[in-house]
Design brief:
alpha+beta
Length: about 260
């Protein structure tokens, strides 16, 4: 009977984590380039009361007898499905349509990765993120540029006075990973960092070697589907309530057992 208490309690803890994950997804429904998390669960070890195949007389037991000891959170996985593209009024906004991440240079010189292509220009005209981190490789927009365009292959060009043809300023490169779910989200700017699980980045031109194409003047929206998350929240809440009732029922059974009248 005590096993039921602990098993149900582990279920409540797991569903609380699930609710935390769902709440974070809903909170970031309007975050550019955000990728939703999904909690994965695993059953705990089983207490084996009788092993299958145990000898009983001249025969063997066809099935075993065991009891599970609850559930645990196995992992929290990022789901890198494509978010919808939304047109913006900023020609420096860039969306990745397909696989790949923008490369960002952090203040300490290390490289981070993001799907958030809402780029700005600093006081020198260099493309940076909203936090002021440089896009890698660095691209500088002339101060007298009349029009800036980002091609699907990552080529950044600008029309300057006195030149009938756009001037090529550089090319945006994308980084792909064998296991993008292995990237570590560090927050504070929609950034990810490389880990041993993600593998080394595979840098290539957009549209080549499996990398996605770029859409200038667009931003990738979050891939969170509000209706689906609300359904998941209801399921998590009902599972939490069921585990709570299992604890209550186990408590009542223990109370009945404790208060049995003494045998005469």
């Amino acid at each position: 009977m005590m096993r039921a208490l602990y098993s149900a309690a582990s279920g409540m803890i797991a569903e609380q984590y699930n609710m935390d994950t769902i709440s974070n997804n809903l909170a970031n429904v309007n975050t550019t380039g955000f990728k939703k998390n999904q909690a994965r669960f695993q059953d705990l070890v089983y207490q084996e009361l009788r092993a299958p195949g145990s000898p009983v007389g001249a025969s063997l037991v066809p099935t075993g007898q065991d009891v599970g000891l609850g559930v645990k959170v196995g992992s929290s996985e990022k789901i890198f499905t494509q978010g919808s593209l939304q047109q913006s009024d900023n020609p420096l906004d860039v969306a990745v349509e397909g696989d790949g991440f923008f490369q960002i240079t952090k203040p300490d010189g290390t490289t981070a990765y993001t799907r958030d292509g809402s780029f700005k220009i600093d006081n020198n005209g260099t493309l940076v993120t909203a936090d002021g981190n440089f896009l890698q490789p660095q691209i500088t927009i002339p101060q007298n540029a009349l029009q800036v365009n980002v091609g699907s292959d990552g080529t950044v060009s600008a029309l300057v006075p006195g030149s009938p043809q756009p001037q090529t300023l550089g090319q945006i490169q994308l980084a792909r990973f064998v296991n993008p779910a292995g990237l570590s989200p560090i927050g504070g700017g929609n950034l990810y960092t490389q880990t041993a699980a993600s593998g080394a980045p595979i840098v290539s031109q957009p549209g080549l070697n499996g990398a996605g194409a770029l859409q200038g003047g667009y931003l990738e929206q979050s891939n969170v589907q509000v209706v689906q998350e609300i359904v998941n929240m209801i399921i998590a809440q009902r599972a939490y309530e069921a585990d709570s009732k299992a604890i209550g029922a186990s408590d009542q059974m223990l109370n009945t057992a404790v208060n049995l009248p003494p045998f005469q």
